[in-house]
Amino acid sequence: MSTSTPRLRSLGLDPATGKEALAVTHPGGRLEELADAHALKAAAVLVTVVGAVLEVGKASDAELAAFVTPLYAALEECVGIMAADRE
C-alpha cells in the first residue's frame, strides 16, 4: 500500500461520548483502513444531502455557501486517500 508518513485521521464519533475519535494512522494499517472507510462514508452522505438540496433548487446563497467548507474537507480527504493508494 502507501509509504507516506503517519497522519492524524478521524475514525468517526465515539458513541459513548459523542466526541470525535482520532487516531494516528500508518500506511497500510488497520486504523488507516477504518479512517478511509469513515471518510468515504461521510463524503457519500454529504453528496446525498447536497444533491437533494440542489435538486429542490430553493436553497438561498447563504445555505448553499454553508456546504462549501464541508464539501472541500470531504474532497480533500478523498483526494488524500487516492494519493496514498498510489504511493
Compact description:
With 87 residues, the chain is α+β, with helices and mostly antiparallel strands.
List the helices and strands and how they pair.
Layout: E1 7-13, E2 20-25, H1 30-56, H2 61-65, H3 68-86
Antiparallel strand pairs: 1-2
Helix pairs in contact: 1-3
Number of separate strands: 2
Number of domains: 1
Give the termini separation: 7 Å
* Secondary-structure class: alpha+beta
The pLDDT mean sits at: 90
Rg is 15 Å
Large-scale geometry:
globular
Q: What percentage of the residues does DSSP assign to strands (E)?
A: 5-15%
Number of continuous helical runs: 3
Q: What is the ordering of alpha helices and beta strands?
A: EEHHH
**Helix fraction bin:** 55-70%
Major sheet attributes: 2 strands, antiparallel
Strand order of the largest sheet: 1-2
Q: Give unreliable regions as ranges.
A: none
What would you say this structure looks like, in words?
This protein has 87 residues and is an alpha+beta fold. The chain has one domain. The protein has 3 helices and 2 strands, in the order ββααα. It has a two-stranded antiparallel sheet. The chain is globular, with a radius of gyration of 15 Å.
